[in-house]
Amino acid sequence: MLCLALPQMGIAAVSSNLETKLSAKPSAVVNVFIGTGGDGHTFPGATRPFGMVQLSPDTQLRHFKQSYPWAAGYRYEDDSILGFSHTHFSGTGHSDLGDVLLMPYSGETKWEPGYPERAFSGYRSRFSHQQEKAEPGYYAVKLLDHEVDVELTASERVGLHRYHYGKGVEAKLLVDMRSSIYDYKSKNLWSSLRVRSNTLVTGMRITRGWAPGRQVYFAMQFSKPFQQREIQNREDAIEYRGFAGPGSGAKEKVKVEGKALVAAFNFGIPNDQSLMVKVAISAVSEEGAIANLQEMSDWDFAAERQKASDAWNTALSAVSIEAAPDMRTKAYTALYHSMMGPSLFMDIDGRYRGPDNEVHQAQGFRFHSTFSLWDTYRALHPLLTLIQPTARNADFIQSLIASQKVSPEGILPVWQFHGLETWCMIGYHAVPVIADAYLKGVTGFDAEAALKAMVSSAEYGAYGGLRHYMQYGYVPTDLEPEAASKTVEYAFDDWTIARMAEKMGKLDIAKKFYARAQNYRNVFDVNTGFIRARKANGEFRVPFDPAVSNFGSDYTEGSAWQYSWYMPHDNAGLIQMLGGDSAAIAKIDQVFDAKVDEKIYAHMEDISGLIGHYAHGNEPSHHVAYLYNYFGAPWKTQQRLQQIMDSQYHAKPDGLSGNDDLGQMSAWFAFTSFGFYPVAPGSNEYILGRPFLDKTSLNLPNGKRFVIRAENLSKANQYVGSVSLNGKPLEKNFITHTQITEGGELLFKMQSTPNKNWGSQSNARPYTQTKYRVD
């Protein structure tokens, strides 16, 4: 029995047996509040690994003035909660979701949330972090103004609430369908509430937020029948009232429609002071949501919480970590955040809604959505190929291919959530996700269909200046915004198509896209050493300042200082254009060592976590510290990684220097703490950095184990003295995917001074296209 049955113990108290059992598991060291402050934009609520429901508190409204700070609905700095909704993004820089908000309360019914700076002005309630508890799969808080203890847990498709009210008070519940309260007229296209009985309410809403025309349906089941209910459409101040006395509620059914629906339910004075609510969601229909309630067949909250905890411990146990407590917490929390998305997005019967906004049936796979691909192709998806079952990775790829087949444009997702395309960010980065998985041996999908979808995406001229890219060999800045960034990102995506096509024996396709992969050279200015945008007439744009960054300019959320390193498939070409190893090392040193007035990037909220011009809070910089390995100076990579880890990650709410972006920031941390990183997904190589954990064991999907040990690891010993693989010296400064999946042990011997000889020779360096190009 948990604490809410014993209110005098407080919400943090649970049975000692359950706490003891949980404490021995990886989930016990996860701090779900990391990233909920600052610009991390994570949420602390209850969800399952890759779950469809993210049941979490909201502390602020979602409207345009607050879309960035409250993208996840919750900020640790806040001191009031306006309710608990069932869908959230983890770490994005854009606000949406927050569907089906529930707020338990007692006393007077207030129909508006009120203002955080004015106590008692609405239905929101103050809370204290001292009376808040969260762990993977579970969240609890005391609502101070309503005298209600709240507990939340979730299955994949169902959120479960348990409320404990004060003695002798009526148990009441508000359901707000608006989510974006003050801009519902522009966001909510339509919504409905249907009272089917005094224990079952269903409904839906259609929004035109980040993904236009998004539909979400729900089924809400109560553990006790309500005695009274009131529904209002706050848009027109039209009130719909209905009262159901004991025994009559099931007979009286009502459906209300509008853009601003709010409902209040009164359950009387419960003998046990408690109420439980299940909420299942669906993208298909109310009937689909009702069917999804089958995932949770009874009302055993403790059992459901345990199932959620078990699911997280199973997922987190893919990696066994030995490290100091603070580092172990950061590492397991990073792994936790790396398993939020892509999220399941289909009903229990396999139906889902696709990018054509029509309902489809998944055959032989589980449809997932929420693909933040511009971010996650870099490290998150490569990480998931190591720590998730092959079937899960195949589900991701089948979901991408299924989306392409019904896409109105016939291309793979760019940034998709809830099945719909947002067209956010640039590139066709579903391509490297598929290619990387295929080249690593992930099966369970149609490779021919996948390659066809990849080529179709790369040749869809109406998207992002691709027509011009194919015509000129670069994206002209006078014809398309963000031209420099688009050119180099398209070139990398093209290289991954070539790699997969070559592996499949499609040499004509491989030759074509290997050639396109060299297009990054067309925007590299050898005179300045920077990637620069060119006009259609071939001239570089002038005047030129490598620190300039603006929305819609030549670079995407960055400047030339950040983007001039983006040819991860051909760093030998970069070295050549910069004038050799020494020049390349000096140039990258300038990135980190520059004395930068942070005001020059202050207008770009995504450019954060600055070390000189290096911006760890955003993705274009994420591979840069590892480039020293390509230049023959891996000891400098080790030095920079220490600098980044010390300054950019902390085990506290503002412990992420930028948006977690569906796990990319966390995946970077996870890989770096292990001791290696996938600079070029699709190369099947991981660049060796230095480990930050004493011992890491990867329990691989194929059943084998790969162990990474750090001997003599300490704060002072930040440099690699030597590396051995399975007892034999490893002189190369990278390892391959095959070496990992074969199992074994990678041993780093750490020391206080740099070993400038290890990994510095030309034959010790990683793959680049120039070095091994197929003509």
From TrEMBL:
It holds the Pfam family Glyco_hydro_92N. Gene3D superfamilies: 2.70.98.10, alpha-1,2-mannosidase, alpha-1,2-mannosidases domains, GH92 mannosidase domain. Its EC number is 3.2.1.-. The keyword Hydrolase applies. Keywords: Glycosidase, Hydrolase. GO terms for cellular component: cytosol. GO terms for molecular function: carbohydrate binding; hydrolase activity, acting on glycosyl bonds; peptide-N4-(N-acetyl-beta-glucosaminyl)asparagine amidase activity. GO terms for biological process: carbohydrate metabolic process; glycoprotein catabolic process. Residues 289-751 form the Glycosyl hydrolase family domain. Residues 753-775 are annotated as: Disordered. Residues 30-282 form the Glycosyl hydrolase family 92 N-terminal domain. NCBIfam families: aman2_put. PANTHER family: PEPTIDE N-GLYCANASE PNGASE -RELATED, SECRETED PROTEIN. This is GH92 family glycosyl hydrolase. It comes from Undibacterium fentianense.
